[in-house]
Design a protein that fits this description.
Elements (H helix, E strand, L loop, with lengths): L1 H7 L19 H7 L1 H4 L7 H11 L7 H4 L8 E11 L6 H13 L6 E10 L6 E3 L3 E2 L3 H4 L6 E11 L5 E8 L5 E9 L6 E9 L9 E4 L15 H12 L15 E2 L29 E2 L32 H27 L9 H9 L10 H4 L5 H9 L21 H10 L7 E2 L11 H4 L8 H4 L8 H6 L3 E5 L1 H4 L3 H5 L8 E8 L5 E9 L10 E4 L5 H33 L2 H10 L5 H10 L2 H12 L5 H5 L6 H11 L8 H7 L3 E3 L7 E3 L5 H24 L3 H5 L2 H14 L15 H23 L2 H5 L21 H6 L1 H8 L3 H14 L8 E2 L12 H25 L13 H5 L8 E2 L10
Antiparallel strand pairs: 1-5, 1-7, 2-3, 2-4, 2-6, 6-9, 7-8, 10-11, 12-13, 13-14, 14-15, 15-16, 17-18, 19-20
């Protein structure tokens, strides 16, 4: 019977003297290959034959065949053990502590946590999955007071020898309080330990009566490969996640559904707080967001009622920040509140708008803090509501801002034209520069609506800056480039300029590529809406020749930067890497099982996105939120974002190579390493980004080709096809009929789609997010809004400008209150979270055991990321090629400087992120 026990997995320690020296039964490969020998009833008739074959192939060939006869023909009961890892909260409020103690007490009387194992096989009697008995977690009451981060509990199951391989486990929580289930490991089966990575909140049965289902990580299964015993559970889990599209969602729910953006305004507070609905049948196309089901407002039945801070906004429970992330978020929010507190108090106490008087005022934000060097002397402290608290904070330097990296090497680099041009290709928004193909540039706006939009740019404006070339020669030689915000801003300018304290142009900036391979700005066109047939709505500013012209030029560049800041935040950052990804994430949870290989590939890149987007709707992009307060478009911010979605966004051009070709920054060239030739060799975003793109694509290609060897596998995968179809037809319903959507019919199609999604969620997001404070933290370098237009010689303000152009320049920048609010936000956005994940990190825990081929491909990808990181670092050290000022170009944003190696998976900062 000792050998029978070995085969049944009852004891790997107790051995009879006959087989005490055998190692074959301790070999994991043996159990993996021959697990069915002891657990599958349908092969009972061939058991002796198969056992003989195994023993003949093993080193124990000398074992007598008579020994095999001790294996019983009937099913044998045996025990297996579950080790359940629960993660404790570091901090609990009073209510949680009381309920925790109550659960510990009632656990002794049957209100406990129970588990049930599910086999991959079908029970021939019930025609359903084979199930174990219910097993209860032991010692919950004894271990409930442990303060460790993780607590391990055990449970024991009794199963038959023909149970098969465990493929799923259900968990029932009869306590009053939810708990975070990290993992479950089943020990005692002949196949070896079976792992269930859970990483999920398990709700109380009173909140969610159904059992929670978790699948093992033995390997991913395509839908048609799902073991018979798991098919019904796979379908049931997806049905639960989809919900029925009705009702108000509770914070404990795990339901993923769609809705339009109808919760940005609050019409109950007044007409000034009403905002248009985005998405749906209102002719304002926009991606869908996660549905919450809240009741409508009292004054507008089509608008969803608001949930204001500090009350949380619904996202599915497992999408909410984990504790370490939430703690970092709260710390960042506290810092942001403090950085806004003093300017707000100053504004309320004094009638002065507190404009910056000069560069020293701005510098003092980093060196002296907000209190003592900006007018708040001791007598002012006495007027503050909490002087002791504020003064103690001041002593701890919490009201000082970190010095932005743009100032770290050269405080006046931002004033120079070469730095202004460098940021167009290596700054926080390096994705709008295009090769100029026609001069003068042409608008695509409808002339019947906006009038004839002929450019004011003429050859005489730029001819003297082309190194002796004609304009046509410069175009043909790929030497002229443009950052064009004319069509983005012009439709909104009348309304923007009617806002209090907001003045803007629609700008175009022309750059010339010098013989040294660097860009220089040579002309800026400033456009306003036409007010009549003879209206001077456009003007051109060129590099200065005198002091007055210098300040005129600086003001023009500031307006360009203000345009750039708005497009960066509202279009490139929020729309492209947050809002447009949300439908793909919702569809992935609704249509792809946790067992699906594509779900496992995407899962790390979907983390936190729904929570961040919900927080953005609550505080940042909402009516009177931070974005409206800080950026030029004001209350029209999200309408501008929606216009860009309608007119500019195309999924097929969101990948890096396609985007570079679309903008004319590269041309296809099979002789080049990545199949592209950059027309500006020193284009850090593109040069560094293409290496990252290629690494991601290589990893995705290895992964997809492993699971989808041919097109039939792709076309016949009903979950995969449902995910992609729903992402387009429901998540992007307003653009679903566009012809540019890629098809999903071949492995190559799938590789392209997945590479684009992962690029957007990781490297693209990081490049647009983590450099915000290094550049934007110094407001003159990147003002988020402007308050004054540039005066013409015939304007009454021109005399004021001419008498003191520096004073006029600072009066046109954001006020102290606006500047510090913006600085606080971008400081928070640019900070890495302590639980940041990095693609390519060798220490990143695997979400499934995987086979050797996939694991090896991931390690190859990891090594490639590190090689790229080193190459970027080495190239950045070569200052002969790039005159960097220390600001965060792509390597700084992509490759986290202190949190660890690799590219950020989600690129999530430690606060609300847009």
């Amino acid at each position: 019977m000792a050998l029978a026990k070995e085969i049944m997995g009852i004891s790997l320690v107790e051995k009879s003297s006959v087989i005490s020296s055998s190692k074959v039964f301790l070999n994991p490969n043996f159990y993996q290959k021959e697990n069915q020998l002891c657990v599958n009833r349908q092969f009972q008739g061939r058991r002796n034959l198969r056992t003989r074959r195994v023993l003949r192939q093993s080193p124990m060939a000398a074992i007598s065949e008579n020994l095999i006869k001790v294996v019983p023909e009937k099913a044998v009961k045996f025990k297996v053990r579950a080790v359940v890892t629960v993660r404790n909260k570091n901090k609990e409020d009073l209510k949680e502590t009381i309920v925790k103690h109550l659960d510990a007490f009632t656990d002794k009387f049957g209100r406990n946590v129970s588990l049930e194992l599910i086999s991959t096989d079908i029970d021939p009697n019930t025609k359903g999955p084979k199930k174990s008995n219910q097993a209860v977690l032991k010692d919950w009451s004894k271990k409930s007071n442990l303060k460790t981060e993780r607590v391990n509990y055990t449970a024991e199951f009794v199963v038959d020898s023909n149970f098969g391989t465990p493929g799923a486990i259900t968990v029932t929580n009869k306590h009053q309080q939810e708990f975070f289930l990290e993992s479950i490991t089943i020990e005692g089966f002949a196949c070896g330990p079976v792992h269930f990575p859970c990483n999920s909140w398990v709700q109380s049965k009173k909140d969610h009566p159904g059992k929670r289902i978790f699948f093992s990580n033995q390997q991913p299964y395509l839908p048609n490969e799902t073991p018979a015993g798991l098919k019904s559970l796979r379908e049931r889990e997806l049905r639960d996640l989809r919900g029925d599209g009705t009702g108000v969602r509770k914070l404990s729910d795990r339901v993923y559904d769609y809705d339009i953006y109808n919760d940005l305004g609050n019409p109950d507070k007044g007409i000034d707080f009403a905002r248009p609905k985005l998405g749906g049948s209102n002719n304002v196309p926009y991606p869908r967001r996660c549905r919450t089901g809240r009741a409508p407002t009292d004054t507008d039945m089509s608008a969803e009622s608001r949930v204001e801070k500090p009350k949380p906004l619904y996202v599915p429970r497992d999408e909410q920040f984990e504790e370490s992330k939430m703690n970092a978020f709260r710390t960042g929010r506290l810092k942001a509140v403090l950085h806004n507190l003093i300017p707000s108090l100053m504004a309320s106490i004094s009638t002065n708008n507190h404009d910056f008087k000069g560069f020293s005022d701005i510098d003092s934000l980093y060196s002296k803090g907000l209190l003592l060097k900006l007018g708040l002397q001791d007598e002012m402290l006495k007027k503050l509501p909490l002087p002791k608290v504020v003064s103690s904070i001041q002593e701890g330097d919490l009201l000082k801002y970190d010095t932005p990296k743009i100032l770290s090497k050269d405080r006046f680099a931002w004033l120079r034209d070469d730095e202004f041009a460098r940021q167009a290709i290596a700054g926080v928004n390096p994705v709008n520069i295009e090769r100029l193909q026609v001069f003068p540039p042409v608008s695509k706006l409808d002339p019947e609506i906006y009038g004839t939009q002929e450019s004011a740019l003429k050859e005489e404006h730029i001819l003297g800056h082309l190194n002796g070339m004609t304009v046509q020669e410069a175009l043909d030689a790929n030497r002229l480039y443009i950052v064009d915000y004319h069509d983005v801003y012009l439709p909104f300018l009348d309304r923007i300029n009617a806002l209090d304290g907001r003045k803007a142009y629609a700008t175009r900036t022309i750059f010339f590529l010098s013989d040294l391979g660097t860009l220089k700005p040579i002309a800026i066109e400033l456009s306003l809406p036409q007010t009549g047939p003879s209206s001077r709505s456009k003007r051109v500013v060129t590099p200065p020749v005198d002091a007055t012209g210098n300040w005129m030029w600086q003001l023009a560049k500031a307006h360009v930067c203000s345009n750039d800041a708005g497009v960066h935040q509202l279009v490139n950052h929020w729309l492209r890497t947050h809002a447009c990804l949300e439908p793909f994430i919702l569809a992935a949870h609704r249509q792809l099982s946790a067992m699906h290989p594509i779900y496992k590939l995407l899962d790390p890149h979907m983390r936190y996105t729904l929570e961040i987007n919900a927080l953005a709707r609550q505080s940042l992009i909402s009516a009177d939120g931070v974005i409206e307060a800080c950026f030029t478009p004001g209350r029209y911010c999200m309408e501008m974002s929606a216009a860009a979605y309608k007119n500019l966004w195309r999924f097929d051009l969101e990948g890096l190579p396609a985007d570079l070709i679309r903008r004319g920054m590269a041309v296809p060239d099979p002789t080049q390493p990545h199949g592209l030739k950059l027309l500006i060799e020193d284009y850090p975003y593109a040069a560094d980004g293409l290496m990252i793109w290629a690494a991601i694509e290589g990893w995705v290609r290895s992964y997809v080709n492993h699971y989808y060897p041919d097109s039939a596998q792709v076309c016949n995968d009903r979950e995969l096809q449902a995910w992609y179809a729903e992402s387009i037809n429901v998540g992007h319903a307003d653009l679903r009929n566009e012809e540019w959507w890629p098809t999903l019919a071949t492995p190559e199609d799938l590789i392209s789609i997945l590479t684009t999604l992962i690029w957007l969620a990781s490297a693209q997001h990081a490049s647009l997010n983590f450099g915000q404070y290094p550049y934007g933290g110094y407001v003159p370098n990147r003002p988020p809004l402007m308050r004054r237009l540039i005066p013409d010689e015939n304007d009454p303000e021109y005399a004021v400008f001419h008498d003191d152009p520096q004073k006029y320049f600072f009066s046109a920048l954001p006020s102290l209150l606006q500047a510090t609010k913006f600085m606080a936000v971008v400081d928070t956005l640019s900070t890495h979270s302590p639980d940041e994940e990095y693609i390519g990190d060798r220490h990143q825990p695997s979400t499934w055991t995987g086979d050797a081929e996939i694991v090896e491909a991931f390690y190859d990808f990891s090594s490639e990321i590190r090689r790229i990181e080193k190459e970027i670092d080495d190239r950045n050290a070569d200052t002969r090629l790039r005159n960097r000022c220390g600001a965060g170009v792509l390597p700084y944003e992509l490759l986290a400087p202190s949190s660890g190696p690799g590219v950020t998976c989600r690129g999530v900062p430690n606060s609300v992120s847009i």
